[in-house]
Amino acid sequence: MSATIDAHVKRFDNLGMDSSVRSVTSASCESDKFYTTTAWSPVKEKRELPQHIATLRVLGKNSVNVNMAMAELLNSHGCVVEHSEQFRDHDIDAYFQRVEFKYETMRKTTEQLEGAVAEVCGRLGLEFQLNWNSRKKNVCVMVSKYDHVLWEILLRHKAGELACNIPLIISNHEDLRPIAEAFGIRFEVFKITKDTKRAQEDAEIALCRELDVDLVILARYMQIMSDEFCSAFTHRCINIHHSFLPAFIGSKPYHRAFDRGVKLIGATAHYATACLDEGPIIEQEVERVTHRDSIEDLLRKGRGVERRTLLHALRAHLEDRVVVYGNKTVVFEN
């Protein structure tokens, strides 16, 4: 058994998995892909949200007064700014800001501060989003048959590296149910055909709303999402595309990249929109390849890039570091 486990650990390491994280599952799992020496209990939350730290994101017309106005506003209400970052897009005369602030010493109610922020933003022609971080975001992961991205998310989550809850995994196949059961996560299958696609998507949307899902992750979910689904989760549905967009949009990008003789392959995490693979890009990474690499080598290297790229995008969204404008994003540093 030890030799078999080592062989599978080596397999995951070769695909780009962090060598400090081992892939295991429940003792009751019958699949020959997953092994463990002790049974797992359902995932226990390890990472707690920072106490009384809120996040304010601002977008609007460029002005030299915005940064000072926000700082004075928060200070006057007894809040303490922990971190502030700004960006100005001079080509479109736009201003972006993200502020983390402590509010445990705030002298007003949250409603009063929100009202004050709304007043200042209205006066300066700005839009804002204020998250009090009173609870962790709920994430639904959607998968088909590829498991490498799902493993990455679930292992990082179990290790306490993702500040979220994962109450649901949705699939159009039964194949990955053993993984969900190993982590104690609800797994629902919605079979998709041409005739049932819209009705099944409506059922998926209803279930996500029932569970207060804040974010949907398309973790190599091999279905094209309808306009209605994308509208239900506008800028709250992240897809990992196995290509460095805008190159090789659509299916089998690694095969087309191989035929083209590229020297770099990559992956793109973006918000899903009605336009296939053209939503606002959150994160991209690349991996160098050579003429010696076969299609299988490109697929192997690509799986590692896909995992890393989606993980970075997921963290950015969970930490409210993304601001969408037009079909672009500003992603503030961690």
TrEMBL record:
<dbReference type="InterPro" id="IPR036477">
    <property type="entry name" value="Formyl_transf_N_sf"/>
</dbReference>
<keyword id="KW-0378">Hydrolase</keyword>
<dbReference type="InterPro" id="IPR045865">
    <property type="entry name" value="ACT-like_dom_sf"/>
</dbReference>
<keyword id="KW-0554">One-carbon metabolism</keyword>
<dbReference type="Pfam" id="PF00551">
    <property type="entry name" value="Formyl_trans_N"/>
</dbReference>
<feature type="domain" description="Formyl transferase N-terminal">
    <location>
        <begin position="137"/>
        <end position="313"/>
    </location>
</feature>
<dbReference type="InterPro" id="IPR004810">
    <property type="entry name" value="PurU"/>
</dbReference>
<dbReference type="InterPro" id="IPR041729">
    <property type="entry name" value="Formyl-FH4-Hydrolase_C"/>
</dbReference>
<protein>
    <submittedName>
        <fullName>Phosphoribosylglycinamide formyltransferase</fullName>
    </submittedName>
</protein>
<dbReference type="InterPro" id="IPR002376">
    <property type="entry name" value="Formyl_transf_N"/>
</dbReference>
